[in-house]
Amino acid sequence: GESVGLHLPTLSVQEGDNSIINCAYSNSASDYFIWYKQESGKGPQFIIDIRSNMDKRQGQRVTVLLNKTVKHLSLQIAATQPGDSAVYFCAETPYNQGGKLIFGQGTELSVKP
Amino acid sequence: GAGVSQTPSNKVTEKGKYVELRCDPISGHTALYWYRQSLGQGPEFLIYFQGTGAADDSGLPNDRFFAVRPEGSVSTLKIQRTERGDSAVYLCASSFGTSNTEAFFGQGTRLTVV
């Protein structure tokens, strides 16, 4: 039978292009959201976060958008570089649950030189 | 300064054996979290500590899994009577607090049960 969870959604982009990675979160009571980058053999690395009272936040080459109406997060990476190749996870923190993170499935980003 | 350190980085054990996985959090971080990550999936929450006490252990899959943090710093995740389904990467994270603050992850321990 099919092995659920072994086939990550993938996004392939050309170096220098912009990337958009999307995520649907599950809990309308979540009040804090984070994007993590995970390279092979390493732990997740924090990229950017956003609180539920915001709808947009910008970092260096990255922007996170939050749409609470449809429970949707997106991560935009400008001028994507080969070093951006990794798996990207969104994570949510439900209100009043002590910082426990609930991770989405992840998207594998592949940057072609 | 040093990040979150996990040892060992790899552990191979036989089915039925007992294993301990260690996590050294960032100095001064009061909150410590354990997650488990299977191939191709996002990390799944197991347990978190605020100081020495387990504040939420709702993610532990069964009573074969136990974790301690006796002095509020280093934590050990203990798995009894290991099963092949326990094979995964076990990740530890720490943060300065528990309210909307960044959690820093270690490299993980890859556990393989044969």
Protein model, in words:
The complex is a heterodimer of chains A (113) and B (114). Chain A has strands at 10-14, 19-24, 30-38, 45-51, 56-58, 62-67, 72-77, 86-94, 102-103, 107-112. Chain A has 113 residues and is mainly beta. In chain A, strands 1, 3, 4, 8, 9 and 10 form a six-stranded mixed beta sheet that branches. In chain A, a hairpin with a 6-residue loop joins strand 3 and strand 4. The relative contact order of chain B is 0.33. Chain B is mostly beta strands and 114 residues long.
In short:
The complex is a heterodimer of chains A (113) and B (114). With 113 residues, chain A is mostly beta strands. In chain A, 0% of the residues lie in helices and 52% in strands.
Q: What is the C-alpha radius of gyration of chain A, as a whole number of Å? A: 14 Å
Instruction: Characterize the biggest β-sheet of chain B.
Output: 7 strands, mixed
Q: Radius of gyration of chain B in whole Å, from Cα?
A: 13 Å
Task: Specify the biggest β-sheet of chain A.
Answer: 6 strands, mixed
H/E element sequence of chain A: EEEEEEEEEE
What's the mean pLDDT score of chain A?
A: 90
Secondary-structure-derived class of chain B: mainly beta
Strand content of chain A: over 45%
Query: Averaging pLDDT over every residue of chain B, what do you get?
Result: 94
Count of DSSP-assigned helices of chain B: 0
Unreliable spans of chain A: 1-6
